[in-house]
């Protein structure tokens, strides 16, 4: 089974189920697409959308594509379409995703993006499979979840159907490991490109099994070794580790390549939105320390554009050194564009007090009062956004639950703010 042929066919498959949306999509196909197999007599085929999270990092994008491919090869009486959970116009921002896809000859025209689909799924027979996240506006249609972060206390989780199968594995460093385990469980389908994509993703997500970062478990390492056996059986352990390091450096360089991006695009490159009943908080993952980002020319204007209409924004910086053995560094920045210092301080105190795990936050050596924000070095480099996001959500929910509406304590939105997203 060919991955490229499957992706081309997916676009055609989608047009059969959603003809109006497909016809109005700005993403016109430039290459002939093979027709999907006709439905068997007396059998109603079902559409399954496999969708990653809104940051669309390499783990999310690869997990969506490869899981859809695996399921399509094993459940031939159903249709599976992978979806990248970003607007098509944002694809160039995902530099490491585009890099790996280009290595596998996957072009943008082969891919389905979030804006190729309707805002709401009105057909209850469409099944949704979530990978690398479990909070989604299509919760009522979700039949399966594969994720490696703890289950959130979010209203959307309450809308998941009773029959939804949840594979939540917080100890894993990469969602691609979960997908890889399904890939290796049976002999078919097999694809050299799928093997390459899964392998690269786990290497990047685990920071190449860095003992300092500790973002992996035994299952992540075992999966990479199995995938390496599929790629090259004749290499010894030393050669495999050398090639792994070379691949990791290549992916880190691709992810950090912001040479063709504006600072506003850098902020959007790895962005997630924390949504509560009355708050929308954009959280930007940066390929550098936030403290270094604010020293760049025009950083303040980019931040104001990124957080337009919000009362709080969060920058999560991570610097991965290009040399082997270098120390990974992380930091956190909290900024209120409205100058709402009590909210920033309340979130800061909650992060400082966090013990599951402790973030070990300390002031930067180079202090700053940039935009009245709070900038902290994170010395526990093992903690990631999935640990920080629930802490901030809890603070906001506690404020919203307060019986008094004191504007010194909490800021309410009358409508959902616009984040300058495409």
From TrEMBL:
Domain of life (superkingdom): Eukaryota
Region (Disordered): 19-44
Domain DHHA2 as annotated: residue spans: 248-396
SMART domains, sorted: DHHA2
InterPro entries per the UniProt record, alphabetical: DHH_sf (IPR038763), DHHA2 (IPR004097), DHHA2_dom_sf (IPR038222)
Record GO terms (molecular function): exopolyphosphatase activity
A Pfam family assignment: DHHA2
Family in the record: Belongs to the PPase class C family. Prune subfamily.
The protein, known as: DHHA2 domain-containing protein
């Amino acid at each position: 089974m060919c991955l490229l042929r499957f992706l081309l066919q997916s676009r055609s498959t989608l047009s059969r189920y959603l003809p109006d949306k497909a016809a109005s999509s700005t993403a016109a196909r430039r290459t002939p697409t093979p027709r999907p197999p006709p439905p068997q007599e007396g059998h109603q085929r079902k559409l399954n959308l496999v969708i990653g999270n809104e940051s669309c990092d390499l783990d999310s994008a690869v997990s969506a594509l490869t899981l859809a491919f695996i399921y399509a090869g094993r459940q031939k009486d159903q249709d599976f379409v992978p979806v990248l959970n970003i607007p098509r116009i944002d694809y160039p921002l995902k530099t490491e995703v585009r890099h790996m896809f280009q290595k596998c000859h996957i072009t943008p025209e082969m891919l389905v993006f979030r804006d190729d689909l309707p805002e709401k799924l009105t057909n209850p027979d469409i099944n949704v499979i979530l990978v690398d996240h479990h909070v989604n506006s299509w919760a009522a249609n979700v039949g399966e979840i594969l994720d490696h972060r703890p289950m959130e206390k979010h209203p959307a989780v309450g809308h998941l159907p009773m029959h939804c199968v949840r594979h939540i594995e917080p100890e894993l460093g990469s969602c691609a490991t979960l997908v890889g385990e399904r890939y290796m469980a049976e002999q078919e389908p097999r694809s050299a490109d799928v093997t390459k994509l899964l392998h690269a993703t786990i290497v990047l997500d685990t920071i190449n099994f860095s003992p300092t970062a500790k973002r992996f478990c035994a299952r992540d390492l075992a999966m990479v070794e199995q995938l390496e056996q599929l790629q090259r059986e004749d290499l010894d352990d030393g050669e495999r580790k050398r090639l792994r390091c070379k691949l990791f450096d290549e992916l880190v360089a691709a992810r950090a390549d912001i040479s063709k991006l504006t600072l506003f695009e850098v902020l959007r490159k790895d962005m997630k939105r924390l949504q509560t009943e009355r708050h929308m908080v954009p959280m930007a993952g940066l390929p550098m320390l936030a403290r270094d980002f604010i020293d760049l020319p025009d950083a303040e204007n980019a931040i104001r554009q990124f957080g337009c209409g919000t009362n709080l924004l969060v920058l999560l910086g991570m610097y991965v050194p290009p040399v082997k053995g270098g120390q990974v560094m992380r930091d956190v920045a909290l900024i209120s564009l409205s100058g709402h210092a009590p909210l920033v301080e309340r979130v800061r105190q909650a992060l400082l007090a966090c013990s599951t795990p402790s973030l070990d936050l300390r002031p930067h050596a180079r202090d700053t009062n940039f935009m009245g924000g709070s900038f902290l070095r994170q010395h526990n480099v093992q903690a990631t956004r999935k640990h920080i996001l629930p802490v901030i959500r809890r603070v906001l929910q506690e404020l919203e639950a307060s019986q008094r509406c004191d504007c010194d304590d909490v800021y309410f939105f009358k409508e959902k703010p616009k984040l300058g997203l495409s």
